[in-house]
Amino acid sequence: MARSGPKLTRIARTLGVSAATVSNALSGKGRVSAELAEKIRATAAELGYVPSLAGRALRTGRTAVIGLVLPDIANPLFPQIAQAIELAASSAGYGVLIADSRGDVTTQTKAIERLIDRDVDGMVIVPRRGTRIADVGCPVAVIDTPSTPGNTVAADHWGGGRQIAEHLKALGHRRVLIIGNNPASNVQNDRIGGIRSVLADGAFVETLWIEPLEREQGKGCPLGLAEKVAEGFTAFACVSDLHALRALTELQRAGINVPEKASVTGFDDLIWSPVVTPALTTARMDMTRIAAIAVEALVKAIGERDPADAAIGAPVTADDAEVPMQLVVRQSSAAPPRIQFQPAQTTANARTSAPEGEHQP
Amino acid sequence: MARSGPKLTRIARTLGVSAATVSNALSGKGRVSAELAEKIRATAAELGYVPSLAGRALRTGRTAVIGLVLPDIANPLFPQIAQAIELAASSAGYGVLIADSRGDVTTQTKAIERLIDRDVDGMVIVPRRGTRIADVGCPVAVIDTPSTPGNTVAADHWGGGRQIAEHLKALGHRRVLIIGNNPASNVQNDRIGGIRSVLADGAFVETLWIEPLEREQGKGCPLGLAEKVAEGFTAFACVSDLHALRALTELQRAGINVPEKASVTGFDDLIWSPVVTPALTTARMDMTRIAAIAVEALVKAIGERDPADAAIGAPVTADDAEVPMQLVVRQSSAAPPRIQFQPAQTTANARTSAPEGEHQP
DNA sequence: TATCGATGATTAAACGATTAATCAGGCGAT
DNA sequence: ATCGCCTGATTAATCGTTTAATCATCGATA
């Protein structure tokens, strides 16, 4: 909306100079004497001058707006991401336009197109389950996972998995059930890979995928964790706090106390994780840092780009593409009960009696 | 970013007409013969013409962008709201710029100012705990609760409370603990008001506020619900699913089975509500409808407004300001256990032995 | 003294769309 | 035959900013 605020010409008129001089003084580009420049800045500030983005956009081809594309906005991580991106972008002078794709791939394409039509200078994309993003014709920062080709910046999900696993291992767990949602997700696979890499030596590990299970038994179906406990599993390492919550309540409901009889861990430190009972042990990513790096790389690419060509659409790269995760130990994890499947307390070779880490069929 | 796409003049040149005619044909405003208009539309479509928002904005003072302001983006409801607003806005041809206030009031003001500086045509505000929003100088749609002055559109939180209470009442609950976060929230007060209005007759009701309790005992402290059960409470009506989740896990942890020994209900149907065990009974608001109404009212106000003046900043009003909530009955609510505090099964006057609905000190 | 260069400012064009004002015909009515 | 009106199109101005090109002035150099 056209604020009634003063325009460039208004300042120029006030000081009896030309509009071009004002523009030069404010941007520091042309040749303006130091004293006049100072005077211009002063009156601009005094009058509360705010440049018209529309005018500038028309002239420069830069809108100072970036688009934020998320696989599905309903993802509980969305608030964290959006907040961090918005903060980073606005400190860099950019606005953030959101685009929702409701999980749908074609909708996502449409959403991206709408952003392009709005002349965004660049976009931050969190791709859905490792789908490659097509060349969109403007600089793109991709936040996925370091092992994804084209990734710009991401948390070190593998490392996060390792931390979780080491925590569980140190507590004494030797039979761990990993709970994931969908094997197509690069993020989940990295987390799981990290967990397995630590537990491979001397622990029995199995993976349960929720989505395939739900396709058979319906949404929100029980995961059958009580049976798993009966089979000797003492820890449930979930790939997201959402699944951890699901596991926790299912176990509690079955009368299995957490963490005394079974440990539960999650990922992402979602909003409820500190306030449920027991509070969830989880691995958190430093979204603020990730967003800062992504936006910084994006802004750099935008700056280098010639506004005329619409050719370059390859994901931009950041110097520091891998941000470590942070283990948050709370009450949902503890040592396993002493009874089951602990062949002997005879220190060393007791471990070898447990099956080596194995992979799911 | 300046797409390399064809401009208005390009189409004009292709057909050998003037740019003005093309503009008129495409907008349907000036006087253009039907056949020429058709031909223009055809080539525009063929060439994939997309108007430059910057050019249009500069001329018309309309950016076709609205701002979305939320009290704190970390709110678990945010995804729902953002998704619904984005859908409604984009179908109306508007982009959505997000502004986060991190819960802080001064930050919120800054965020709003940034939106104004970006020339948004209007904004949708979900105010923080009933803070009145100041005159911002552009049309504003407020989503809060019908009883808030200046509210544009909202779910019927009071009615939602009534539905929850009637459900609980029909199940036979006579001692209900309401769990809220902060007494300053209009939304929460309406929900609680609705609950109490139904339960006032013949049930004992008490309210527990989390935030004051946490100020004393620290974040994530136990709510002491086991004691409440011992006192005879059979149902916990929470003002949000987040609190319901907290209550549920605390009860489960204390060995109190839900719903056999105590019922738990929430609000908002948040992401985890269907997948925890037992799945949460809750009241859902129709965000899609609310967003549609809010955006419609906003767009109408934007259309009527003279782009030149920046005076009107009062919240716009919608025709249909109150959208009913929908009760979602799942497994977390059931009839209370038969034993405790049921003075007698002697039908009628048994009720009067229970204290009338009372208010918290 | 005439000229060159640097300095500090101004002019004017451009970005892409909208829209008020204008203009050229054609047709009916006086 | 002339005037006025309606239709369908064009002209030209405008929104606010940026920036290349131009210009004036002054001091220093040849």
Automatic annotation (TrEMBL), chains A, B:
Single Gene Ontology MF annotation: transcription cis-regulatory region binding
Biased composition (Polar residues): 342-352
Cross-referenced InterPro entries: HTH_LacI (IPR000843), LacI/GalR-like_sensor (IPR046335), Lambda_DNA-bd_dom_sf (IPR010982), Peripla_BP_I (IPR028082)
Boundaries of every HTH lacI-type domain copy: 6-60
Chain residue ranges for the region called Disordered: 333-361
Keyword Transcription belongs to the record: yes
Record keywords: DNA-binding, Transcription, Transcription regulation
Transmembrane annotation, as ranges: none
Pfam families the record matches: LacI (PF00356), Peripla_BP_3 (PF13377)
Keyword Metal-binding: no
Protein name according to UniProt: LacI family transcriptional regulator
Lineage: Bacteria, Pseudomonadati, Pseudomonadota, Alphaproteobacteria, Hyphomicrobiales
